[in-house]
Amino acid sequence: xxxxxxxxxxxxxMVGVLYAGAVVAVLPLLLILINLVIKGxxxxxxxxxxxxxxxxxxxxxxxxxxxxxxxxxxxxxxxVGLPIGIGAGLFxxxxxxxxxxxxSRFVADVxxxxxSIVVGVFAWTWIVARQHHFSALAGSAALxxxxxxxVLRTTEEVVRLVPHALxxxxxxxxxxxxxxxxxxxxxxxxxxxxxxxxxxVARIAGETAPLLFTALGSQYLSFNLDQPMAALPLTVxxxxxGPYAEWHQMAxxxxxxxxxxxxxxxxxMRIATRRRFTANG
Amino acid sequence: xxxxxPSPLPADALPVTIRDRVPTGDRxxxxxxxxxxLAVPVLLVFLALELYxxxxxxxxxxxxxxxxxxxxxxxxxxxxxxxxxxxxxxxxALALLIAVPLSLGVxxxxxxxxxxxxxxxxxxxxxxxxxxPSVVYGLWGIFVLVPVLKKTLxxxxxxVLGFLPFFQxxxxxxxxxxxxxxxxxxxxxYVMSVSREVLLAVPGSQxxxxxxxxxxxxxxVRTAILPYAxxxxxxxxxxxxxxxxxxxxxxxxxxxxxxxxAASLFAPGYTMAAVIANEFSEAATDMHxxxxxxxxxxxFVLTLAVNAGARLLIWRVSGGQGSGRAG
Lengths: 281, 327
Known about the structure:
The complex is a heterodimer of chains A (281) and B (327).
Chain A: H1 3-40, H2 46-50, H3 64-94, H4 99-112, H5 116-131, H6 136-160, H7 164-172, H8 177-205, H9 232-241, H10 245-279
Chain B: H1 16-62, E1 72-73, E2 78-79, H2 82-113, H3 116-128, H4 134-151, H5 153-161, H6 176-200, H7 204-212, H8 217-246, H9 249-254, H10 272-279, H11 286-317
Helix pairs in contact in B: 1-11, 2-3, 2-6, 2-8, 3-6, 4-6, 6-8, 7-8, 8-11, 10-11
């Protein structure tokens, strides 16, 4: 084989390998989604969303407690995490050269890489160990802690995309700095901030590890944030690792609900962002 | 009167009436944002302190020798993290061994070879993998992936590579190898998307120069593009390592949870994150809690070091863009 054919052959082969690699990389997502639908969809009915779990061995029952629990835990986490995250993100975008902005940005990156189970241990020593009982609130605290660095980074990024001329125009018109920042700059970046916030909500809604020894899980429908509470990811974990076939069935169905929520939110946000960016050119 | 906030406009450029009114609103605004921004480093310090305090009794009793000690006996209150650290490092390394070539291949494919129409959908689908909750990976792993691997890949590996100690012994479903494979799938989107960004940042002139010299497209990638992006890709890999080290639920569900260092990858193992997930809510003694908190502290320090390293690398490659633009 001449050198030239050899080189052409290598080129073709590598392109083929790369195509194959792309197929392999896309495969897991498809397989997971297909399995979830096949194994989970048949259990989804009205009772699944409105009932609470039945004792092991019986069939029927639902995960209403986990749906309510996830909503409450994630809701409280967002109430705490979003304002702090957005505020810190605005600070980093507004005063980018200050030392605090540099430190916060770096720490946010570090926290983003911190395992969620470590944050769970932190919430345990901080709240559960001091109160001497598990509580949904401790779970919310752990989730909020995971949320803040994510929201900080996305907020900062979208706010910095706002053209400098807008800010200068507002300041030139005599707007004070805070009104410029809020009514002009943050207002312009609002769709991006909302997208980032919702993405982080989707991320923490799927977190299990930080809830294991904070919210703990519960078989009953509870609205009391000071008590243990069920959550969708916890329910998936308990049912998946349990010994009963009915539990495994429930685990698939709960996972399907969870993934519909999480992926649905992520996909919707991505489509919304893309449309906005293409609309602006 | 001095304005407190450093503003792109000098404060004295403003009309007198505004200058008098501005500071109050601005000060409130800046104070609020400063508090929010301060919360971030304060939380990190608080987290480190709480972990250190929680681990206190274990640190006192076992000292730094904890990390090279391999007992784990909650009844006798004798704890050591060596098998856990070994399991964490081995599963992450194996995961990267599988994930890095694949994600790098996809990143190269997407930036260099992929038809335009496919580019967005493929990138989107790989990145969606990052949005799937860990516990769902675990569920899928237990009931779909592991039974398949147990019947196909594992016997095949034992047959072909059985002369190596890594592929000997009885085949369990949940094992080091099962956990590593699911971890590989989970870190792939992170490595892929960062490498893709790095590859996109390679100037077009690099490629064009190589092609103009008669290189084939693959040769251009290999000789001009990859060397240029090398350190950024290295950063992406380390970032993936950080993810793999701390991954909890899927690993807990698939690794088999045994405090043991086994040569065979078919044998069950344990990781730091998994032991915390399994034992923390059931720990009976204060020393058991402290030992688990010590494990969390070790894991925290490890991921901290790895992530700081990765950030530093990526930051250096991107020419300090991550550090913020001058105000």
